[in-house]
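Sat 14:20. Reprocessing the chain from the morning session after the first attempt stalled halfway. Input below, unchanged.
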Amino acid sequence: MLIQLSFAQQVYKVDIKDEIGPNAWRTVNLAYKKAVSTKADIFLIELNTFGGAVNFADSIRSCLLSSSLKTIVYVNNNAASAGALISLAADEIYMHKGGSLGAASVVNANGELMPEKYQSYMRGLMRATAEAKGRDVHIAEAFVDPEISIPALKPDGKLLTLTATEAVKAGIAKAEVRSIEELYQQAGIKATTVSQHKITWMDRIIAFLILPAVSGFLILGIIGGIYFEMQSPGIGFALVVAVICGALFFAPLYLQGLAENWEIGLVILGVILLALEIFVIPGFGIAGILGIIFVLCGLALSMVDNDFLDFTFTKPGVLMTSFLIVIGAMFGAVLLMFLMGKNIMNSSMFRRLVLEDEQRADVGYTSSQQKVDLLQKTGIARTVLRPSGKIEIDGVWYDAVALDGFIDAGETIFVEKHENYNLFVRKIVDKTV
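Finished this time. Tokens:
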């Protein structure tokens, strides 16, 4: 009778063989939606992990607990920590011969136990999950708490980790198998009805872009691009670089459920405040400081899963790591500005990009020409310089930046230096008054 029913069972299978994190959660979520859309009867996860972030494991657990499909987890060797929580949420657990399940205490990046509030939360998750699936709640708690006494399975004071044989005897796992084919046989599944979830090229790109090193490089591109754009007139290549780096930084984090709208908005607000500080408000004050803080916090928080600054169940150490990445990228951008700020505009690559040879003075273009001959010349501020604006020298208007921070229209100025196609000017103070 069981074999006859198995012919009608459609199975959708997904593999999770890495650390439980945003990539694992996104893969399971997409696979489950695909299983539902294809009208599968069974959702099967082949699991081999030493653990990961509790919050993402909890998301996978919730998906399995609320599933309208029959759920099976095949522990193909290891289901430690977060992997044990996911396993307990399935309707059935099958374990590979020689596999293990358990050891679910919450630890930091150095393997040290976290405070009791973390352990208490994890115990509650394990207990509630086991209870929902009719499994022994004391065994589930013993995965987290060494003080739970189960003499038949572990010494007192030690965390519980079950072998495949022990898990079957304890009623946690349904059967011990030697291969996925044997699992199909034990579960009454015909192999030809199994659809394997495939990782797409887009999934791989997203996984690559959220790597810490790549995120740091993109942050450097955002900050460096904005700086170099502010150093050149008009909208050009540097701004394009900043926008592309920003999109590549935020888009995968948003798709993974890490970056929230308010965090992206915080970065945008920070950039606006910095622009106001540079172009509108003289000097450097509260707007500039807040702008830097907002950009720093927005970028760092976008890399960390949190519930509006609630980091209770965020994997320990992740928040500090994200801030270090952002700060490191900012220092890298400052170093890049120092090393390249005076030379990049004169490089052969930049000259090709900005089409400098088409903007000739004899046809009315002046901002892209070298203006060394204007040094120490005097002129008139034709617009307010705060600090950027327009000046007039010998009847010709030029873009200029005030070194004094703020110069009113009509003030007399002199050119102190020329750098990156900008004239830097100071106000001539009338000392006769």
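The chain has three domains: 2-199, 202-346, 359-427.
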